[in-house]
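Run DUF6431 domain-containing protein through structure prediction, thanks.
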Amino acid sequence: MFEVLDAAAARVALARRALSCPDCVGALRPWGRARPRTVRDVGEGILTVRPDRARCTACKATHVVFAALLLPHRVYTVRFVGHHALVAAARGQGRRQIAAEFGAPPETVRGWVRLARCRAQELRALSIHVVASATEALPARVLG
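Sure, done. The structure for DUF6431 domain-containing protein is below.
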């Protein structure tokens, strides 16, 4: 499994064999679709997604191509966890209050908050990198 920012662009890249295998760096090619997953998104949104699968032409390993919106092995999107739970926790709300407000089990919310605290430095560095990359992509007239 590996993550991509744009699933549609990844599908095109797979067709062109322009993505590399994370295991051996061989070319990946389309290999059907993974099983459907139902995930909860911001608001009352429920999404059913069916990620692409890819197979390496060299080592024959298969991989699920996950959009960055999805969290592996979770029924909530990144936006749901980040926008709802982690922002509320940062504002001082407790896990039970967050869980009641957003309809997630308290222990699930507790796990999200605990993991975010453990990885706070990594998340901070990633956030800075994303903002810096986005800023570099803007035309100079927008920045100045």
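Residues 2-67 form one domain.
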